[in-house]
Design goal:
five-stranded antiparallel sheet; 208 residues; SH3 type barrels; 3 domains; alpha+beta
């Protein structure tokens, strides 16, 4: 009986020690992560505290293509406040361009939005954009235009197109291309509406 009790005590002690060891390792891991985050925050604060020098430069392109997910910032400084995310394959309108003290080229741009038109203009580095060309224009998802008079199907599910009566568009509607299927395209439009149109009826941005 004594042997059994001793064995049980040994097992319990082993479990306690093991749990304590795991908890200690977990705390160390958390501490390391927090220290890393703290270091990154200090770097960002140091950047924001640096004097901002901007030299406005001539920039001939009025539109640029953003192929990957990005964001527009409140200031032409890396790490500054994010105004809005930019979805991949978006065409932005360029209003201004500046070179900062580090010789980075920043663009002041407007992005297409489909909800409340707030924070729709901000700064992005030119390096996060590429020229809009004939080779990449068909990759654009925002903005695309469905012209006035086009037959549109105001449904979300592709399968419901065949049982839905089309409506003639009464104005040039813009939207973001979110899906293609069998020659059809679904656009997400301002106001939260989704429409299906034949892909051939989509108008892509004009390449300058």
């Amino acid at each position: 009986m004594g042997v059994i009790k001793f064995g049980l005590i040994a097992i319990v002690l082993t479990l306690i020690i093991g749990c304590s060891f795991s908890a200690t390792e977990l705390e160390k891991s958390k501490l390391t992560r927090l220290e890393t985050e703290n270091s990154l925050l200090k770097q960002q604060i140091a950047q924001l505290n640096e004097p901002l020098s901007m030299t406005y430069v001539t920039y001939n392109e009025k539109r640029r293509f953003v192929p990957k997910a990005s964001q527009i910032l409140a200031l032409p400084i890396k790490g500054s406040y994010v105004l809005r995310p930019i979805e991949p394959n978006t065409v932005v309108t360029v209003f201004d361009a500046v070179r900062t003290g580090k010789n980075d080229l920043w663009l002041y741009v407007g992005i297409p939005v489909y909800d409340t038109p707030m924070n729709m203009k901000g700064w992005i580095t030119e390096a996060d954009t590429v020229a809009l060309t004939k080779d990449n224009v068909k990759l654009v998802q925002s903005d695309l235009i469905v012209g006035k008079g086009t037959n549109i199907y105001e449904v979300f599910e592709f399968e419901k197109i065949s049982t839905t009566n089309p409506v003639k568009e009464t104005f040039d509607r813009r939207g973001r291309l979110v899906e293609k299927r069998n020659g059809w395209a679904r656009l997400s439009c301002p106001g939260g509406s989704d429409i299906w149109v034949q892909e051939k009826n989509l108008t892509y941005p004009i390449v300058e």
